[in-house]
Amino acid sequence: EPRSPCCCLAWTLVIGTMNSLVFLLNLLLMFVIFTIVLLPTIVVVYFGFQCHSQVLHSSARYCKSILDDNSSSALIILGFVIMSPLLVVAMAIYCSLARRLRLLVCFQPYSLAVYKGGRWCHPGEGALCCARGCNTQLKAWV
Fold it and tell me: Looking at the chain, which terminus has fewer C-beta neighbours within 10 angstroms, N or C?
């Protein structure tokens, strides 16, 4: 049966807040994974741009003794070349972890706010947000 307008508004805020927190958790997890996996690319491109005379031309000791313009250009190109495979690896790690933790199952539909008697956790979903009654056979992607 439908909820009253005030109750519906309150439940909408609760569900919206919960979905926002799940979204932020997913975003934080993605940021951490991509930062760790792409760290070699970030470092290589940073040193390439820092030591190139046309960009930043740092006066650091390693820029004067080890890296000239040609080697800085090579570092920049190498960094951008290794970025593509590392992006694929980072996305595969994130998807695997999100699937294993069942983070995408934690999003709740707004129909729970409109109608009484809805369940927060459907039997057999088994995510972190619904720890009771875990079903190991559930697949998030077919």
Answer: C
pLDDT by residue, tens only, the chain of 142 residues: 677 777 778 888 888 898 899 999 999 999 999 999 999 999 999 988 888 888 776 777 778 788 888 888 999 999 999 999 999 999 999 999 999 988 888 888 777 766 666 555 554 554 445 444 444 455 555 4
* CA 104 to chain CA mean position, Å: 12
C-alpha dihedral, 14 to 17 to 20 to 24, nearest 10°: -130
Q: What are phi and psi of 115, to 5 degrees?
A: -115, 140
Q: Contact 39/87 with Cβ under 8 angstroms?
A: no
